[in-house]
Amino acid sequence: MSTRPLAAAPTEAPGSPDRDRRTLEAARAHRARENRLRTRDLVLSITAPILLIVLWELSARALIIDPRFFPPPTHIVAAGAEMLRSGELWEHTGPTLLRLLVGGGLGALAGIVVGLVMGSSRALNAALGPLFSALYPLPKIAIFPILLMIFGPTELPKIIAVFITTFFIMQINTVSGVWAIDRKLLEAGTAYGATGFSRFRFVVLPGAMPFVFSGLRTATGTAVVVVTAVEFTGATSTGLGYLIWNSWQLFIPEKLYVGLLVIGIIGALLTTLISRSEKLLLPWRRER
């Protein structure tokens, strides 16, 4: 019985027209699928809250839920519009934003700087690391009475409380970011002559930035909680936290929900700003 060698399957050259065409078609199909998924996600993100609000409105009007505690959303919107017209809402939103932006901004900046230095210095981290680890778990709200005793019922204790909250979150995340940098990247930077400040600028800082932005998102949410809580204490007569607390005491639920809504909007806007900044400054992470 004679045997014949099997014919080899035809292969395509890497740059053949058929191969390039299939690659292009696959890329187009992938982009089309991603566009469909983005459209679906956008529709869901809009329709789900609308359906929830409509269900709330109908349930409150049908007395399925107690409208004394859950007033119809239309009543809340009307109360918010009246507060805008009278200026009452701006009177409370402005101080909260000031405390958030000043305390949170300075705390984030200080936390990033200290985290970068500690992450780059083994000796400094050995000296300060245990102290920061001991202070981080302390409830920042519990520190507020001490700040009131020292500085009195002024703006400074509220700003410092937000500062401390943001500082520790950013310091820990930044140190973790520096430590997470691949050793091979550091060695490659050294091989290309990056030493001292140039190594820090082109290797350490970009490598730690994903952790920095992750920390910023966490710190923003926590700072919003803290600033609202310190405004509950009665050490102030302005702020969205004071508005919520005072509305509860006077049993005006519409104003209470307006305060909660504005706080949620502020948190969402700040988080969106951070995410957009990350995509702008870290273009290699845009697809994530």
UniProtKB/TrEMBL annotation:
<dbReference type="InterPro" id="IPR035906">
    <property type="entry name" value="MetI-like_sf"/>
</dbReference>
<dbReference type="GO" id="GO:0055085">
    <property type="term" value="P:transmembrane transport"/>
</dbReference>
<keyword id="KW-0472">Membrane</keyword>
<dbReference type="Pfam" id="PF00528">
    <property type="entry name" value="BPD_transp_1"/>
</dbReference>
<dbReference type="GO" id="GO:0005886">
    <property type="term" value="C:plasma membrane"/>
</dbReference>
<feature type="transmembrane region" description="Helical">
    <location>
        <begin position="159"/>
        <end position="181"/>
    </location>
</feature>
<comment type="similarity">
    <text>Belongs to the binding-protein-dependent transport system permease family.</text>
</comment>
<feature type="transmembrane region" description="Helical">
    <location>
        <begin position="225"/>
        <end position="244"/>
    </location>
</feature>
<feature type="domain" description="ABC transmembrane type-1">
    <location>
        <begin position="93"/>
        <end position="275"/>
    </location>
</feature>
<feature type="transmembrane region" description="Helical">
    <location>
        <begin position="202"/>
        <end position="219"/>
    </location>
</feature>
<feature type="transmembrane region" description="Helical">
    <location>
        <begin position="256"/>
        <end position="275"/>
    </location>
</feature>
<feature type="transmembrane region" description="Helical">
    <location>
        <begin position="42"/>
        <end position="64"/>
    </location>
</feature>
<keyword id="KW-0812">Transmembrane</keyword>
<dbReference type="InterPro" id="IPR000515">
    <property type="entry name" value="MetI-like"/>
</dbReference>
<keyword id="KW-1133">Transmembrane helix</keyword>
<keyword id="KW-1003">Cell membrane</keyword>
<feature type="transmembrane region" description="Helical">
    <location>
        <begin position="131"/>
        <end position="153"/>
    </location>
</feature>
<feature type="transmembrane region" description="Helical">
    <location>
        <begin position="97"/>
        <end position="119"/>
    </location>
</feature>
<protein>
    <submittedName>
        <fullName>Nitrate ABC transporter permease</fullName>
    </submittedName>
</protein>
<keyword id="KW-0813">Transport</keyword>
<feature type="region of interest" description="Disordered">
    <location>
        <begin position="1"/>
        <end position="22"/>
    </location>
</feature>
